[in-house]
Predict the 3D structure of the following.
Amino acid sequence: MKNRHHTEQDIIAAVDTLARRKGIQKLGINAVARQAGVSKVLIYRYFGGFEELLAAWALKNSYWAGHLPPPETGPRNLSDGIDILKGQITTMRSTPLLREIERWLLLENSTVGSTIMARLEERGTALTRAFSSLLKPGKNDTSIDTEALIALLTAGVAYLSMKSDRCNVYNGVPLDNEEGWNRISRTLENIIQKVLD
């Protein structure tokens, strides 16, 4: 007999399967229960409701919530921080479902969307503060807001990743090949290095 943790993972995996097959907009609790081989009563008992299940699923698939070390550890040095930002590029590019979740969250005007965004913000803010402490410019330079800089860089990566599903080039930078993404990755690293200089 499975324990609760394994059953919860099976239910989240069922959401994953159905989202890939049918799209997020067509998900429903009955279909998820059938796919997972459980009753919908069990889903309500374990997650509190369908929106809470969607929140748990989206957070599990989020790069910032699901693919990073705990926020309290954060990046230990500048190289770690750069690797985290480059990891966002790699993960967003290689995971179509993650790009779909990002698009869905931008369009979702409901409690579940707000809940997920708030939880992602908590996670992202903790990591940004840890990373930002590594990027403090010289004592006399107060013109650089490192948290805003990281927000721009990560939002840019997310946007370009989502954009790559719809177009091959953006502002002259190819989004459909390694050469274009290597340019983006190098530029991201150069911006961070210049902040330190």
In short: The domain at 63-196 is CATH 1.10.357 (Tetracycline Repressor; domain 2). The longest helix spans residues 111-132.
